[in-house]
Amino acid sequence: MAPVWSKQPFKAVYVAILLVKVPVMLLLGTRFAFKPLRPLGRLSFKITLINSLVREWLLFAAQTRSSGMGTVKSDHEKMKERSAQAQPASIEHYTGVLTPQATRSPAPVGGLWYPGPPPANSDLKREKIVVHFPGGAFVMAFGADVNGQNFSKPILEELKADRLFFAQYRVAEDESTRFPAPMQDLVTFYHHVLKMGYDPSNILLSGDSAGANILTGFVRYLEETSVLPSPKGVMLWSPWTNPSVKVKEEYNQATNANADLLPTKLLEWGVEAYFPVSLSKEVVPYLCPLHHAFKTKSSLFVHTGDAEGLYEPTRDFAQEMSEVEGNRVKLHVTEGASHNPVYARDGTGMVAEIYRAFEDAHQFFYGEN
């Protein structure tokens, strides 16, 4: 059931409350200058304060059911030449758990190119491309240009990719966008770049947070169905590997949950909106990859911060995947990093640490310095 704050005039009241609350939070946040008063003492004052403010913003989004999808679509329209729309593949590409349903079928989806779309005369078979799926707890859209610009820098500079496609799948807003709709979109995006002429051996698929969760399910789908060739590799940044109907109890028990930036209500909203109303044994591994390891032909790079509320399940998932015979898996842990530090690297002062993770990924995939 949607919170009362998701409807007017209560939403406006919540905004007014927040405008008063944030300055008070900033004032009270000065207490974090003293290490014993921080939720996690080893985090810096700056990171602790940023986490508390971001958590409040995400809580606002959860309480008011603000997905941001309309803003992302508007932003894509403004980008014009850097914006592209992927059309659904032929129906045989969506099978098994992704079989179209009466209320959930493949649809056109959009993304942004960085540094720009490939020129008409490009030899795409030689280009190294990364297709990235942003997070958002399944319910918030982060495919705007400001996020794409942020993510593209280490992709182009440290990972040395020729191009990035920042792909915004449909977030779960109603019955038509529950699972498997977002995962159908990943089929659509991947088919799109393959159809353009990109060679699978030069494609890296990437996702952060809930985007990494959907991507993991998509990689499982590729292995089980072979409807499309496997990419060279997959990057999972702060993946949400253990969403479940008991997310509140499970997340609150996590070691770093109180210090991280993810509010429980956002995670609850994500599970409520994204999960099918009726769960089957066939679908569960696609929703919760933890304890459901599988074999994959794609090399798998997993990144997490050891101050994340999701740190332990991410570490365990990487270990489980590495124990599957034939899998090639690399876990990179950034010390002192909270959830999804890639985007917040400038504000938190962790630029060098995050760029080091991308350098590690480059070495892992290409064996080059």
Description:
This protein has twelve helices and eight strands. It has 369 residues and is α/β, with parallel strands linked by helices. The protein has two domains: 61 residues; 292 residues, Rossmann fold. An eight-stranded mixed sheet has the order 1-2-4-3-5-6-7-8, with helices on both faces. α1 runs antiparallel to α2, α2 packs across α8 and α5 packs across α6. The model has no long low-confidence stretch (mean pLDDT 96).
Distance between the termini: 51 Å
Basic shape: globular
The structural domain count equals 2
How many helices? The count is 12
Helical coverage, percent range: 40-55%
Q: Could you say which structural class the secondary elements and strand pairing correspond to? A: alpha/beta
CATH class placement of the largest domain: Alpha Beta
CATH fold category name of the largest domain: Rossmann fold
Mean pLDDT: 96
Run of helices and strands: HHHEEEHEHEHEHHHEHEHH
Question: In total, how many beta strands?
Answer: 8
Q: Considering the protein shown, what is the CATH homologous superfamily of the largest domain?
A: Alpha/Beta hydrolase fold, catalytic domain
Detail the poorly predicted runs.
none
- Taken as a percent bin, the fraction of beta residues is 5-15%
Biggest sheet, spatial arrangement of strands: 1-2-4-3-5-6-7-8
Protein name: Alpha/beta hydrolase fold-3 domain-containing protein
Pfam families: Abhydrolase_3
InterPro entries: AB_hydrolase_3, AB_hydrolase_fold, GDXG_lipolytic_enzyme
Transmembrane segments: 12-34
